[in-house]
Specification:
- The chain has eight helices and no strands.
- The protein folds into two domains: about 30 residues; about 110 residues, no CATH class.
- Helix 5 packs antiparallel against helix 6.
- The protein is mainly α.
């Protein structure tokens, strides 16, 4: 069984500093997740998403035919493509492949975002606070990953 204790003694060196920074980062993320500042805007978006006439498409976007949510699977497309494109940026002669992967990742943003919104926003349970914070920011970030026009 592996156990890890936080060693903050001066002899621990860089590992202790990294552990301390990680703990601080996790506390900050936890506070951000629990903040209620964005709740009014989130409620407006929830009402808008609930009012969309998706019909049977809502079940498909939620992954009911598959028996599990579709969003976690769909987000792998942009993430995987962009990570691979970043690696290929350092490979000589792989510019075209990196650009193609970036474009495929961009094409995968909309389906992943729509599936995430349909899957997590209808109920507004406290366990869904993280997706409600994440959702509005993911599509606006995608232009940062646009293919190189050259």
């Amino acid at each position: 069984m592996n156990s890890h204790t936080l060693d903050t003694s001066p002899a621990a060196g860089p590992t202790a500093a990294l552990d301390t920074a990680s703990a601080c980062w996790l506390r900050t993320l936890d506070r951000l997740e629990r903040t209620t500042v964005a709740d009014p805007a989130v409620r407006v978006l929830q009402r808008g998403i609930r009012s969309l006439p998706l019909g049977g498409m809502r079940d498909l976007l939620r992954g009911r035919p598959l028996g599990h949510p579709v969003h976690p699977v769909l987000v792998q497309v942009p993430i995987g493509c962009w990570l691979s494109a970043s690696v290929l940026d350092f490979v000589p002669g792989a510019h075209h492949a990196a650009t193609t992967l970036t474009a495929v990742g961009l094409a995968g943003v909309a389906p992943a975002a729509v599936a995430g919104w349909a899957d997590t926003w209808p109920t507004g349970r406290p366990s869904e606070r993280t997706p409600q914070r994440e959702g509005p920011y993911a599509p606006p970030q995608s232009p940062l990953m646009r293919p190189d026009p050259s």
